[in-house]
Amino acid sequence: MGLLDEIQTDIQRVAEHAGGAVVGIGQRWGVGSGVVIDEGHVLTNAHNIRGEKITVTFADGRTADGRVLGADVDGDLAVIEVDTAGSPVIDWTFATPPRIGTPVFALANPGGRGLRVTLGFVTGIERTFRGPRGRRITGSLEHNAPLLPGSSGGPITTAAGQLLGLNTNRLGEGFYLAIPADENLRAQVERLARGESAMPPRLGIAVAPAQLARRLRRAVGLPDADGLLVREVEDGSPASRAGLTHGDLITSADGRSIRGIDDLFDLLDAATNAEIELSVIRGAEQRTVTVALGETADA
């Protein structure tokens, strides 16, 4: 058997063994893909979720409405409860961790428009990217299996159809990042399936990075200062209740310098108190703002 014949056989085997577990999320031009992880549960990306009712299209063309059991927006994961009606379940048996050069098969059913299976190779490991709300997602697999828009939330597998990861982030120029299907992901998915959504403390602000903040301050004649510039404050958020406003420059939090968005995220993740004290420059005036932490949509 020639090389092309072997590749054809592998792709057909993956489609047969794993394709039945791949679903579409959304309708018609849809928003993404997903994968059946056990009876009644579908795993997908959190950024694929729109509203409370989620339409899931199965491999046989059947559609059903589901609901989110648990979501981790920062980790870009969501588990949907839906009637899987005996659909095949992806083989999640912890295959040998992939290395650079490992062949991978990418599967998707973009918005329910039919199964796609493509072949590529792992091109990088331990990659980092930003989730939907700007937090770092680390340890990702980079691969070059071609994928259509709407493929996020679909799996990458071995030639035997074993789950290797969940496609999540398109890099452009033919590369994609996938969250590896390791023990950490399994434990996280199990928590989401129990309804334990991940909700880290949030301020409820959108910010500009330090470099842009310096340029904007210079443009209006204000002195240079390192920090994050508040671009927007969500109504009713902890930041709003504390009096933060558009144009404030956050320079430190609980006594620690804030030079980038990751500094702020790290401090919020490590927060043990119900409040956080921010040092803020408003115009040229330094002030201290105490924020009672809560759950909001942004940083």
In CATH terms, what is the fold-level topology of the largest domain?
Thrombin, subunit H
Radius of gyration: 22 Å
Structural class: alpha+beta
Count the DSSP helices: 5
Percent helix, as a range, is 10-25%
Tell me the strand order in the biggest sheet.
1-2-3-6-5-4
Assembly status: single chain
- What's the CATH C level of the largest domain? Mainly Beta
Query: How many strands?
Result: 18
Q: Which geometry do the CA atoms define?
A: elongated
Q: Any descriptors?
A:
single chain; Thrombin, subunit H; 18 strands; 5 helices; six-stranded antiparallel beta barrel; 2 domains; alpha+beta; 17% helix; 299 residues; Pdz3 Domain; six-stranded antiparallel β-barrel
Plain-language structure description:
This protein is α+β, with helices and mostly antiparallel strands and 299 residues long. It has two domains: 3-193, Thrombin, subunit H (Beta Barrel); 205-292, Pdz3 Domain, CATH 2.30.42. The protein has helices at 3-18, 183-193, 210-219, 238-242, 261-270; strands at 22-25, 32-38, 41-44, 54-57, 63-72, 77-81, 103-108, 116-130, 136-143, 155-157, 163-172, 175-180, 205-208, 228-233, 249-253, 256-257, 275-282, 285-292. The strands form three sheets. A six-stranded antiparallel barrel has the order 1-2-3-6-5-4. The longest helix is centred in the first third of the chain and has 16 residues, at 3-18.
